[in-house]
Amino acid sequence: MTMNILFYILAAVMIVATLLAITEKHPVHAIVYLVTSFFAMAGIFYLLCAPLVAMFEVIIYAGAVMVLFMFVIMMLDLGHPEEAQRPAFITWLVPLILTSLVLSSVVSAAVFRTFPGGSNVEITARAFATVLFGRYGVAIEIISMQLLFAVVGALYLGRKGGGK
Amino acid sequence: MNLNELWTLLPLLILACGALVVLLLGAVEPGRHTTWTGVVCCCGAALWAVQTPPLVSVSFGMSDTPLVRSFILFFCLLAAAVLIVSLEYNEQRGIHGEEYPATILFVTFGMVAMAGATNLLVLFLGLETMTFGFYILVAIDLKRGTASEAGLKYLLLGAVSTGFLAFGLALLYFTSGTLESAALLKQCSGEPLAVLGWGFVLIGIAFKLSLVPAHFWTPDIYQGAPAPVVAFLSGGSKCATILFAVTLLSTIGNYSALRTPLLALALLSMILGNLAALLQKSIRRMLAYSSIAQMGYVALALLAGGAGGFKAALFYAFTYALMSLTAFGAIAVFERSGITDQLEDYRGGGCKEPFAAAVLALSMFALAGIPPTAGFTGKFMIFAAALRSGETAAAVIGILTAAASAYYYLRVVVNLYMLKPEKAGRIEISLAEKLVLSTAAILLVIFGLFPMLLDL
Prior knowledge:
Strand content of chain A: under 5%
Strand order of the largest sheet of chain B: 1-2
CATH architecture of the largest domain in chain A: Up-down Bundle
CATH class of the largest domain in chain A: Mainly Alpha
Number of helices of chain B: 18
CATH topology of the largest domain in chain A: Four Helix Bundle (Hemerythrin (Met), subunit A)
Order of helices and strands of chain B: HHEEHHHHHHHHHHHHHHHH
Distance between the termini of chain A: 63 Å
Oligomer: heterodimer
Number of strands of chain B: 2
Shape of chain B: globular
Strand content of chain B: under 5%
Shape of chain A: flat
Number of helices of chain A: 6
Largest interface: A-B, 22 and 36 residues
């Protein structure tokens, strides 16, 4: 029961944060909303008995990818950090609500530690790896090739004027 | 993993390792031999696909049925042909670097993975790998603004279509709880969420096949990208997408909910594609609109489904790929003499370059559906299947638009042979190029006369 309520809270947070990320004009604010959405998604993964995926969600998406986005924005100088002022309380309000909701849900999920949906079995790293590299081994290889060619393509197309 | 499973995966491994070897070779010693290495890898993978024993390896999500094998063989040989055709073209356009052959191998890798996939994840990844490679290939001519523009348009629209496809597959997964395509698709045909998922998948497929109203990227990409890349995109990518659609649709059996959208896509593409092609002055844009129309016929075949429609769609996928290869191969040869893609520039091409003109004319006949080419046989199979499944009105409209399309295809032939050239110019065609183009042209006629050779 608690878990169902938590799910709906997190899902609502996710939808609100994603909508804000799309509509927000300031790129840095948009990214922070996106991070909030990812955190909420990580909470949902945790509720679905997949703590490992939840961890990946936080480390890879909310962590690495978003930091990368932030770097790109800073490098392209879209954020204008020097013009930043201390924001008014009203602009604090939405992020505060979203953050407190996510935090309280995650904490309560960690405290109660019962999983919904029949199975109470937590999926361990070992089980996860067996499926990932066993049944979906080919998929992993295909993705690794894709990543390689993302680099190759970016390097090639990034050359100036087609010179060697 | 046992040895048999390794054998099944070997064409994939050959292509993947080939792409890496080409990249490394280019770093150590750049030059034309990187392309030849690519050709050898493609042929090796093709040969292996022919000779391995059939096997369904459930544990890896790859199967190896005769149908899959013929498609693997076809994709590999098509890639080899495209590499050979692009040798001189790239030299003349100043597209250097090992990235080009490596990316072609990478695209073929995606196609082969998709052809053999038995689970939706690998199917989706294969399709996206292919599209991903094309994002690079379309924009590979860095010296031309039009190529970069085409690449950007393809990337943006392709990303949207990928989103639709992924969302649709996710909904299908949600309703059935499994990713194995056969089991998944049998279970979910009636549920509303599954129908929604199918709708999204259909939108994704429509984007990739450039069916109206998801066709807006086609003319610009056909015009901006290098000619051999367009041959590969138009032939290989659409062939693979048709295989993807047939794989999905043939397993669910009853898809009455998809009938109306498929019918609308087919009718709009046939009518709009053919009408727009009538007005084009550039041969590349004309072929782009013609490809929209041709894919409309394929959508009609998909609609006919069980009544021989899937077979007709697959046959047409093969023949359309051959037609694209011959058409854009010949255009690549012509463009080497420095002409633009305007139709007037092809005046008197028959005197200037008899070989390429003959190939181009034959592919125009095939696209127009004139016997004894495979274009006629393919269209015949599609319309026969449509009539058999009771889509009489759609079939009649298809036949009428196909008849109207003869005008703009034959206009190219008229320009080639019946008008005097404005300026003379010689084009050198290498032996390998001649071999590839003439083989493709001969195959077009052979498959037209003996369609049973392609027993799908």
